[in-house]
Design brief:
The structure is a single chain. The protein has 442 residues and is of the alpha/beta class. The two termini are 23 Å apart. Among the domains are: 206 residues, Alpha-Beta Barrel (TIM Barrel), CATH 3.20.20.140; 61 residues. The strands form two sheets. Strands 1-12-11-4-5-6-7-8-9-10 form a ten-stranded mixed beta sheet. The protein is built from 16 helices and twelve strands.
Length: 442
């Protein structure tokens, strides 16, 4: 009876929080700074059946880059604290308390790993007639730090509502060739993220296939000049990462535009963003919000949109230097120490502010189902096999990523240096936990 009462209290807290804090997340055009009302997003129907995990995935994948470390530390501390208090209340002995803490930690890590690896389709942008949604900065497994195939890249962009995009591998153009021929120069266009002698990299965008080798080992100013001679656009990505050249200096060099938002580098300050927008507006340069997609999750919160003709081709439309709008679907979040001390609670608070009634109801139903399953006698029997199922799943992922890395002919580095070791470790940890729990359970 106590468990039922606790479940009811939790469900009432969820419902009450949504009622008290609900404030729909706004659509904002970063270029003008104004809210927009002609655009909205549509979540896939599957979300309502997996709401708690979907909510966590969107939260994890749209955090400010600087927030990850303190947020993860906070989650670990709170999860271990909750597990420890549970063990004290249940009068677990020392060995079983340690096992429970071990289990809680690897379960939390597993949830985060699933959040970045599972291909859950994210929100799709719905836009008025006559608008094009584009992404000028994305990668495939042919880049050294990407974990996804060209088909995954294509699926990501189409399910998110982009009409077309550029593929911009690091220092080469091999990735573009791996897309289906019917999509080349129609949905996906060739580009490259090229490193310069000046210690920065720029995006070179083209309307036709080209070889990136002709732009290697060049100073930025010379690269821009050569790209323009070949009818290409040069865009400065995440300028705030390097600050190598001043904004006016880049404009004098002939840069065609700037990123004013980047999903991989969300640590852009408001002041820096305003400076870039002001400089680009003054020189009438293009402005973009980019996914900089590397295969880590299928969620985005930014789209670059402009009026144009979809049949004309993305490069040709951008070459006309249209006025772009950078539409974001996100809420500014505090970076105060208090926030990170209570991170799990802040995460729920931000969720409660944005979730509609259907999402909240789904969340509540799933909390109830999970609570009933966890306390049911049948689940106690099934739970014995769960660690071994997780271990087997991660073993399959190890094989998949190993084969994926082998298919890149050495172009990819991160899979073998980070992904395979991390997934292998989780495979082993779940296996160890399964045997230990079986031996010491009481």
């Amino acid at each position: 009876m106590k468990r039922i009462n606790w479940i009811l209290i939790i469900l009432c807290a969820i419902a009450g929080s949504s009622f008290l804090f609900y404030d729909p997340m706004p659509f904002v055009d970063l270029v003008s700074g104004a809210r927009v009302y002609d655009f909205y997003i549509r979540w896939p129907a599957v979300r309502i059946f997996t709401e708690p995990f979907y909510a966590f995935v969107f939260y994890a994948l749209t955090l400010n880059r600087d927030f990850y470390k303190p947020a993860l530390i906070s989650w670990v501390i709170w999860v271990l604290t909750a597990a420890f208090l549970y063990c004290r209340a249940a009068k677990k002995n020392l060995i079983n308390t340690v096992i429970r803490l071990f289990y809680s930690l690897i379960l939390l890590i597993t949830i985060f790993i699933f959040a970045v690896l599972l291909p859950l389709p994210g929100p799709k942008l719905i836009k008025p007639q006559g608008y094009i949604a584009a992404d000028i900065h994305s990668h495939t497994v042919s880049s050294h730090d990407n974990i996804s195939t060209s088909l995954s890249n294509l699926k990501f962009h189409l399910t998110q509502g982009y009409d077309s995009f550029f593929i911009t591998e690091h220092n080469h153009t091999e990735g573009f060739k791996k897309f289906p021929r019917k999509e080349q120069l129609k949905t996906v266009f060739p580009g490259v993220q090229m490193q310069t002698k000046d210690g920065v990299s720029v995006l070179i965008l083209s309307g036709k296939e080209f070889s990136a080798s002709q732009y290697k080992d060049m100073h930025l100013e010379d690269l821009i000049e050569k790209a323009h001679q070949n009818d290409m656009l040069v865009i400065m990505p995440h300028w705030w990462k390097w600050r190598k050249f001043g904004l006016s200096e880049l404009a004098e060099m002939g840069i065609d535009g700037f990123e004013i938002y980047n999903c991989g580098y969300r640590n852009l300050t408001v002041n820096d963003q305003k400076q870039i927008i002001a400089a680009a507006s003054k020189e009438k340069l293009l402005m973009f919000g980019s996914t900089d997609w590397h295969g880590w999750g299928y969620m985005t919160d930014v789209w670059t949109v402009f009026k144009g003709n979809k049949k004309a081709g993305l490069y040709d439309e951008l070459a006309k230097k249209p006025r772009t709008s950078v539409i974001t679907y996100r809420r500014e979040q505090t970076a105060s120490p208090v926030r990170f001390i209570f991170e799990p609670f802040f995460a729920f608070y931000y969720y409660a502010k944005s979730a509609d009634i259907f999402s909240v109801m789904s969340f509540m139903i799933w909390i109830g189902i999970i609570a009933v399953l966890v306390t049911s006698p049948m689940m106690q029997k099934v739970k014995v096999y769960l660690p071994f199922l997780f271990s087997a799943l991660f073993a399959v992922l190890v094989i998949y990523f190993f084969l994926l890395s082998a298919s890149t002919n050495g172009l990819n580095k991160i899979i073998m240096s980070s992904i395979v070791p991390a997934v292998s470790a989780l495979c082993l940890l779940w296996l160890i936990y399964g045997f230990i729990d079986e031996k010491f359970k009481n």
